[in-house]
Amino acid sequence: MKDVSKWYGDFQVLRDISLTVGTGEKLVICGPSGSGKSTIVRLLSGLETHQVGDIHLHDANKPGDIGMVFQSFNLFPHLSVLDNLTLGPIQALGLSRSEAETRARGYLERVRIPEQAGKRPAQLSGGQQQRVAIARALCMEPKLMLFDEPTSALDPEMIAEVLEVIEDLAAEGMTMICVTHEMGFARRVADRIAFMDAGEIVEIGQPEQVFKAPESERFAQFLDKILKH
Amino acid sequence: MKFRTIALISSLLLLTACSAAPGTWGWYVIDPTTENGWTNIRFLMRGFSSTIQISVLAAVTSIILGLLVALPAFAQSRWLRLPNRIYVEFIRAIPLLPMLFWVFYGLPVVMRSMGINISIDPFWGAVITLALSDSAFTAEIFRAGIQSVPKGQAEAAQTIGLSRAKAMRYVILPQAIRRILPPLANQFIYIVKMSAFASVIGMQELTRRANELVVTEYRPLEIYTLLILEYLVLVLIISAGVRWLERRMGADESR
């Protein structure tokens, strides 16, 4: 990602963003709302377009190579959990139903809800729904996983179960970019943390370093605010 | 269910009560126990088949037309969306009766001027007009139904690699259809009632037959009352079907 800028009408959401994420790297992006952090992952996932600059995604060459997990899950309510997972592999990757189901059941195991395969999304808790959404993205065997505030819509007691699944994934070496306010999680998982404000990456570095001694005033204030409670 | 039964029974009771008052009502015209009355009833009832045929054909055509008109509304380009708006605004603005006259008397003239020699009989004149007139509304029902599916659904479909067409087919339409079917069914009831206009271009459906019988028997009150009951029965059957459909879909949603 090099010198990327994006506008919504007259409003500039991203200003000259340059960012490189290596294979296997885990990047956490944080920052106040409206800072453009979600826009970055939405650009990388291909959901939005930018006006200036280049985005280059290595080894993303088949559908679903960039996995995306949304704040609001966006599961398909008319399909069972299993059908949510197999839709992409069958329709976009051309797998047979039995291959897709084997794969789907494997990933449901990974996100620790194999017993919910036959249910509808509405019958699951928020935490379970988000884990299904993660499994749905994993079923496409992505090279890069994007998380857009995956725990922001969850009740506090469900946040941990989702973060644990993401941490497992990180431990297995998945490349990931995660927008989140969960600083404990960031500290445990991230190779680097980027702090964004007003469409710019204000500061980027290793968690130990940036948490201990944030270089910029804005990041220090932000950390102060969200760590207070 | 209860309400419909009550409505039907009370209207029948009302009719019996009215018929008791001497001098105002002459039910003999449609008294099934007399030969003449029974012949009259059969004459009126034969209109059902035309009314139903016209309505069903018009509804099916209107749904196909409506979907074709609705789809460009989701195009990225303004210029592709424009035909949708023009069609809907234009067709919606034409009252049914003038449109029926135009199709029945005017369309063959237009076609002839283009070298196509066709005559439109009352049946097809009614079907074309009802379908055309209704299609603007079906198009809007489709558009609203598809738009009611949250944007995140299309986005999620895109991130798992589905093309726009496949996302529409497997993700958007199955969800939209729940919101489309009930108003579409209401629209069908509307078509059934509006098919009465076909009588003015000579189609022998329910209303036309009632008119003809009134001319020979001169008992408008009884005959038109029976006519209204005929439509009532048709509409009640359809709306029972709609309820059943809605219940089934509701059950489906929570399964």
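The interface with chain B takes residues 45-47, 62-64, 66-68, 70, 72, 74-78, 87-88, 91-93, 120, 122, 133, 136-137, 139-140 of chain A (CB under 8 Å).
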